[in-house]
Each structure stands twice: as structure tokens, then as C-alpha cells.
Amino acid sequence: MAETVIRYGFLTLLAGLIVFFAVAAPGFASPQSAVFIFQSVAITGILALGVTATLVVGGFDLSIGSVATTAMMAAAYAMVVLEQNALVAVLICLAIGALVGLVNGIIIVYMRVPDLLATLGMMFLLIGLQRIPTEGRSIAAGMTMPDGSTAGGTFSANFLALGRHRFDFFIDNFLPTSVVVLIVLAVLIWFFLEFTRFGRMMYAVGSNEKAAELAGAPVKAYKIWAYVISGIFASIGGILLAARLGRGDIASGNNLLLDSVAAALIGFAVLGAAKPNAFGTAIGALFVGVLLQGLTMMNAPYYTQDFVKGAVLVVALVFTFALSNRAR
């Protein structure tokens, strides 16, 4: 009985939550509501998959939200101020994510700074850095620059399509491009972690770093690569956010860190995994999206949403790990 509850309890909770909101919140079950949930889930889920990569090796990345926001600002700056095309903007963002992840990994592995402190410091550094080029202003087409000139570039239509285009899926204009990106990335990292030697060694490093090192595994390289993956995924999330907003908004990424971390940690409770995993993270992101959309449509005060989200996270994790220990 306990094993059944461990494996399917959270999925049952998610299904019950959807039914509850469908009954209690008029319009929740509409296609428009589903599209909004999918759009919010996509960016959160992509960042959460990056967090999952660091959790697998026994680390943690608090800088993902600031990396995503920095990538968003960099994409906007490249196209609006530097007047570059979409490809150049995307490549710049991916390079920023990879570089930040590499620096995080080196600081943690070689400088022996605890992961929480290293990535927290990087978070504050990026929050300050992304505001310097425009002196704290958001970036939009036709904006006035600090020197008094007017930015002459615009967002490319192809770039905006990444965040705004929707594919037909049973219903016209139902599936956002960002959700397709999330699904592709989730499948790739799931296959990578579960079925490749590199992925299995990452789990081994997270489970017992000393034993993996004694077995001859390049532990330091695996840990650094985990942070590089996290940085790249965060930058992809920032690209999609910039494409959806059509501007570089310095305040738009404020909740990305909390929501993505919640999704990654909720993933521990899915199917009784009790470990970081890509499938659980994707379900966790969906859960966060459903919960926030349902609370919003029920007119719940915004200041209660983080409390409810945190309470659900704590209960899910305590419930899962307590039952797992009892089953053992």
C-alpha cells in the first residue's frame, strides 16, 4: 500500500488539483487557460531541468533566475541597440549561459566554495551586471539610451516567433513553441541522464562522490559540466522570455528562481523517485503552473500564492521521503 502511495500519490494529487480548479474556477478548463499554463510552465520547466542537472551531481544552482534574466537583456540589447540579427542574439545568450555555468563550476570545484554561496554570489553579480549597459532601464525598440541617442534596432520577427508562435494541436493555435522546446529538452536530458554512461556517472557522483573518484571517474569534470548545462538551459529560458515579451524587462524574471527550484524539488516526489529526475521535474513544473493559474483564476491574493506553493512543496517532499524510509 505504501509503495502504491509513493509511486502514484503525487500524480493523483495533480489530477485532483486540476479537477478541483476546473469546478471551482470558471474558465480554468478552457483552451485559453491551458495555453497560459503551458506558456508559464515552459520557461519554468526549462530552468528547472537545468537545476536538476546540478542536483544530480549533489550540487545546487541559485543563479539560474539571474542567468535567464541576463540572457533576456542580452538578447534585447543585441537586437535593439547593436542591431544584430536573431541568430547572433541567440548565440550570445547561449555563450553567456555556458560561461556563467563554467565559472560557477570552477569556483565550486577548484576554489572549494560551497555551491549555494558561489551561485548566490553569481546571482547578485549578474543582477547588477545586466543593469549597467542601460543604467537600469528596460530595453525596448525606440528607447532612449543613456547618452541621449535613440536605439535603432528592433526585435526580429523570427526571434519573436520563438515566444509567440503557436502550433495547431487538436485546437488551432493551441501549443506554444516554447512548450515544444521544453518537451524536446526534457526528453533529451531524460535520455541523457538515464541511458548514457555520462548521465549514470553524474548520478554516481551525486550519490557518493568519494566512491566515484576512487573508481576513476573524473568527478570534477562531471560537476563542472552539470553547471554548464544549468547555465545553458537558463539562457534558453531567457531567450524564450525575451521572445514572448518583445522587450528586455529587468523585473520580469523575479519569480523564475523560486518557481523552477520548486518544480525541480517537487520532481523528487513523482513516481516515488526520491531523486532528481527529468520526468519528475517536468511534472513538477506542470504542477506549479496549474497551481498558480488556478489560484489566480480563483482571485486568491497574490501574496498568498508563494505560501501555498511552499506548503505544497514541503508536504509533498516530507510525505514522499517519510513513506520511502518506512517502505525500506
Short description:
The chain has 328 residues and is mainly alpha-helical. The protein is built from 13 helices and two strands.
Write a structural description.
With 328 residues, the chain is mainly alpha-helical. 71% of the residues lie in helices and 3% in strands. It has helices at 2-24, 31-56, 64-81, 86-109, 115-129, 157-164, 177-195, 197-207, 209-214, 219-245, 256-266, 278-297, 302-327, and strands at 166-169, 171-176. It has a two-stranded antiparallel sheet with strand order 1-2. A hairpin with a 1-residue loop joins strand 1 and strand 2 (171-176). Helix 3 packs across helix 11 (256-266). The model has no long low-confidence stretch (mean pLDDT 87).
Cross-sheet strand order for the largest sheet: 1-2
How would the global form be characterised?
A: globular
- The total of helices stands at 13
**Biggest β-sheet strands, sense, barrel:** 2 strands, antiparallel
**C-alpha-based Rg, rounded:** 20 Å
Strand content: under 5%
Rounded to the nearest angstrom, the distance between the terminal CA atoms is 13 Å
Extended strand count: 2
SSE order and pairing:
Layout: H1 2-24, H2 31-56, H3 64-81, H4 86-109, H5 115-129, H6 157-164, E1 166-169, E2 171-176, H7 177-195, H8 197-207, H9 209-214, H10 219-245, H11 256-266, H12 278-297, H13 302-327
Helix pairs in contact: 1-12, 1-13, 2-7, 2-10, 2-11, 2-12, 3-4, 3-5, 3-10, 3-11, 4-5, 4-10, 6-10, 7-8, 8-10, 11-12
